[in-house]
Structures are given as structure tokens and as C-alpha cells.
Amino acid sequence: MLIGVLSGLVGLTLGIVGLLAYRASQRQRAGLMEVGEPTLPEGSAEILSVIGRAFVVVDDVDGVVRANPAAYAFGLVRGHTLVHPELLELARRVRSDGVIEERQFELPRGPLGQGTIIVHVRVAPLGEQYILLLADDRTEITRTEAIRNDFVANVSHELKTPVGAISLLAEAVDEAADDAVAVRRFAARLHKESARLTALVQDIIELSRLQGADVVMQGRPVDVNAVLAEAVDRNKLPAEGKHIKISLGGRSDALVHGDPDLLMTAFRNLIDNAIRYSPEGTTVGVGVRSRDGLVQVSVTDQGPGIPQEEQDRIFERFYRVDAARSRQTGGTGLGLSIVKHVISNHGGEVTVWSQPGQGSTFTVRLPELEETTAGKTGGPNEGTLSAPGQGGRV
């Protein structure tokens, strides 16, 4: 009897000890499974939240412990991984040397490698165990700088030709001073090259002026019919020189918001381009109409046409489908670039239809300026008009 009681007590004791041991083991395991949130040095989180740049914080094994949405948007981070080997190598070097480094990289934006982003990265230690990467998107700045450098290089190249020709012709005139026929021939060529140089300089100045124009803030209601009439009038002299008739048809009762001088320049360039490339004795058609809330202007020539593969490039600065023909016609290669720039600044578009041997048609579409109040039959101060993006119909 006594032995049985003692055995029961021993068993109960062992059971309690086992239960306690089990619970202790569970608590220990739970403690091991809990991973605390990585803690950054005091105050660094607040600073990172207001710097306005993409940032990534990695730990001592290159795991991402914190990153803002911009870092994910730039494609620098995926999940908890720093994607690009170049950035990982830079972070490891800073971790090893403790020296802040700055580099600029061109990195693929997505996993397929289609499209790139140019980022300026600054990498620095953050506390004792973290590395901070700050990234600034320089893609647009780099693209703009490249365009500017290309433009300067193109301008330099284009200016060299007429300037060099004028210099050589001046020498030729001097050497042929006793030959009246040769002097007249060289003088005519000199006049042609100087006119080409003047046109080129004027177009460069015009393009520079366009880049500083604020059409949205400085524009006003414009009657496209009046602008077109002036553009046609300014092209009458070169048209008469080639016995070309300019036929102006159609009308738009709607106004557009913009700068009348800039719009006149764009339409004048389109008509001038059509005259230059049309054979003598032909007709250049200019039409205008309103449709679906847009004022549409078309300029049609009977020239040689533009191959399909060239049509996407004709609006580029200094691009010519036929450089030799452009020199003969006196073109600068900037006319269509100016047209595209003006029309884009006015919220519109310019397109081209062309077939070799069938001429070309350039079409400009501009958003109408819609009246926002009734009773606009009085003077200019009665009622108001809304610009595109300010309540107008686009």
C-alpha cells in the first residue's frame, strides 16, 4: 500500500517536471523564432523620410532592411534584395573601407532589361552595421544634356559649310577682279551662300526663342484663319518665283489658345517647305476646318514624297531626306523641327502622310478654345474663354 502511494507521488512529480520542461522549451523556441525589427540609428529614419530621394538601407549581409517606394519604382530593390551587382559591389566596398563613395550608373529598369535608368548613387556607412544608398534619377537631365551637345555639334557643322563657302568665294572674287563675267558668277554664288547662312542663323535664333516661350501663361485667343492668311501672304514671293499657286480653302469659326506669331511661323515653315519641294507650275494646297473639338490645318504639295522609313525622322533637327536636294533648295533642316516644337507647345500635334511620287500632306491639329459663358457676340471684354487644360475642350 505504502509502496503504491510512493510510486504515484513519484510519477506525479515526474509528470509535473516534464510539463514544466516542455513549457520552458516552447517558450525558448518561440523566443528564437521572434525576429526583432531592425533598428536604425536614432534620428536616421526621420531624416530619410524627408530627403526626397530614393534610398536603400542594407545590413551586414547585404539584405535590404529598409527602402522607400522610389527605390522600388527605380527597380533598385526587389523584395528584400538589392537587384544590381554594381550597387552591391559598391556597398561592400564602403563597408570594407568606411569611405563614402559616389558613382553614376546606367542600369536596366526592369527584369527583362528593356529600358534603362541613369542614377547617381551616393553610398555611406549608417551606424555600425548598416550601409545607406541614396539614388537620384538623372535620366532626363542626361538626355537633355545629350540633346544640347548634339544640337551644338550640329549647329557647328551646319555653319561651317556656308561660312567656308563664303570665304572661298570671296577669295575667288578677289583673284578674278579683272574678269567681269567670273566676278558676277562668284558674286551670285556668294549672295546665295550668304542668304543660306542668314536663314540658318534666323532659324537657330527662332528655335532658341521657342524653347523659352510659355504658351500656356502668355497665350491668348487666336484666329487661325487670320494666321494662315498672313503665312500664305509671306510665301507669295517664293511661290511666284517658281510659278506655284497657293490655294487656301476652308474656314474655322473656332479660336485656339496660343501665340499668333509662333503659329504663323509654324504655318509659314510648312508652306515654305511645300513650295521648296514642289515642281514649278504646280499647286500647294492649304486647308483649314474644325472637327471634333480640333482645328485642323493641312498643307499639301506635289513634291517627290517621303519614303515611309524616313517619315519618323523628318521632324528631327537638321535631318534631311536628301541632303543634296536640301542644299539646292536652300533648306536649313530646322523648319519642320520648329513646326513640331511650336505645335507641341500649343497642345497639338503635327503628322505627315506621304508616298514617293505622290507628294506629301502635313496636318496640324490644335485644340479649340471653348467659350465657358454664353453671349459672346459683344466686345472682347464680354464673357471669358478657357484655355486647354483650364476647362476647355481638348
Write structural notes for this entry:
This protein has helices at 2-33, 44-48, 69-73, 85-97, 139-175, 180-211, 215-218, 224-234, 236-241, 260-277, 323-329, 335-345, and strands at residues 54-58, 64-67, 77-78, 81-82, 101-108, 116-126, 130-137, 220-222, 245-250, 255-258, 283-291, 294-300, 349-354, 360-369. It is elongated. Strand 6 (116-126) and strand 7 form a beta hairpin. With 394 residues, it is α+β, with helices and mostly antiparallel strands. The strands form three sheets. Strands 8, 9, 10, 11, 12, 13 and 14 form a seven-stranded mixed beta sheet that branches. The chain has a five-stranded antiparallel beta sheet with strand order 2-1-7-6-5, sandwiched between helices. Helix content is 46%, strand content 22%.
Briefly summarize what is shown.
By secondary structure, the chain is an alpha+beta fold. It has 12 helices and 14 strands.
Uncertain spans = 30-36, 323-327, 372-394
Structural class: alpha+beta
User: What is the number of beta strands?
Assistant: 14
Number of helices: 12
